[in-house]
Amino acid sequence: MGLLEIKGLKVAVQEKEILKGVDLKIAPGEMVALLGPNGHGKSTLLASIMGNPAFQVKEGSIDYNGENVLSLSVDKRSKIGMFLAMQNPIEIAGVNYSDFLKSAMNSHLEKKLSLFQFIRQIEGAYKEMGIPFEMAQRGLNEGFSGGEKKRNEILQMKLLKPSFAMLDEIDSGLDVDAIDVVAKEICKEREAGTSFLVISHYARLYDLIHPSRAVVMINGRIVTEGGPELIKRIDHEGYEWIHRELGISVEKEIDTPMSNTSIGVCATKEALDGTH
Amino acid sequence: MELIKNEHFLREYLSVDETEDIDLEVEENLQISLLIANFDIFSNRKITAKLKENSSLSIAVADFSRGKGNFTVEADILGKVASFEIRGSSLALKNDNKRFDIHLIHKFGNSKGLVSLHGIAGGKSQLTFDGVSSIEKGAKKSNTRQEAKIIVIDSSAFCRCSPSLEIDENDVIASHGAVEGRLNDMELFYLESRGIEEKEARRLIAMGYLSPIARYFPNQIQEKILTSAEGGI
After folding, report:
1. Residue B42 confidence (pLDDT)
2. Domain residues of chain B, as ranges?
3. Which of A53, A226, B175, B228 sits most deeply, having the most CB atoms within 10 A of its CB?
């Protein structure tokens, strides 16, 4: 039995279909790289697995450890071990970061943490992530830089200890040193048994976290998969060869090879803007 | 109204559960801070203030009371380099009908104004923020800002924010912003994706609106503000 099994998943945003039948299986302990040109539905897939209400699942199924995920509320999905580090973590003014962490951590526990246990745990995690502890007293992501938000997403992952973590461009906005810190934490969690599904446009992150497998999403479907060599190939050649070798015509303009900087176009935004 | 701090050019007044009108003249070079907390009954009340040169008045309003009425503030900046600020948080529930009218007039230059109000409307309540900040001709280099945010947590509640600016001078900085609406789905999703149940997520967001006002108050009032906010939500 797989850890995560997605079958025939079709997802729309405001009636515009973005995922057009995704099939994907992830086994326990795997680290899967999710590749594909911008605007083809990678972020939509992660958001749909977590239950983002902006996306409507039209068809298909998502099972996690044999349980039907689509029937679960978002908080229950977290409680069964799923985690999504978001591409653009939202700022929530006035909500104190440490109050938020306490609620989140306690929601995963039968017996609530004492204040002492809580402080000790988060203090350690802040230190390991290289985040000043004073930031725990700020508003939730309020006024954080892009890089600070991303580090804090990984901090949350460390504290919540999911069995399956999805990382949506966790490395964008991070400088080289911060990427190393984040990659180290990802590897540590993986050694502890967490499985991963990771979107990145940079080969550097993948070099550091060593995915066991890569899958490529084009036109809202997973079209091919392979070992780590697939990441290298896309890094060097981009996605042109997919058309040549697999006969799949890429519906949208293919962006530059993954190691170049890209501002990013998300499928949801395009669908909402009606730009294609 | 109780004088709780009296230093050389600094006075701090605390008014808890009082309803009488307040009339203040802020003399030159004086700084006054007025802390108003209501836990009991909301009724009509009017605060009038005149600010002279180089003076400042900061008002903090923490309103967790029940009732109907207009809370009106009229502040006139009557000297240069004076500064007026009001920050407020209000929780309207049940059949409350609360209206906050804030009128600020900058008559002299180099003066500063800030009106910042946060509110939550639940039950069958009505919560209205109406603000007018005016900068008169000649009040050059004045800087004024108005902001209001109200969220409605029950479908039977009603809210309205209308911050407005009347500017008769070119050489000024003026801005305003208003947000009225329901709890943001994406904020809820973010919190819930961390395992937090919807009810708790709503509570955290609502507390985020109401609790920041507490820090302007002395300790024992701070506690009461936080318990009232928690209890109300």
Report:
1. 96
2. 2-183
3. B228
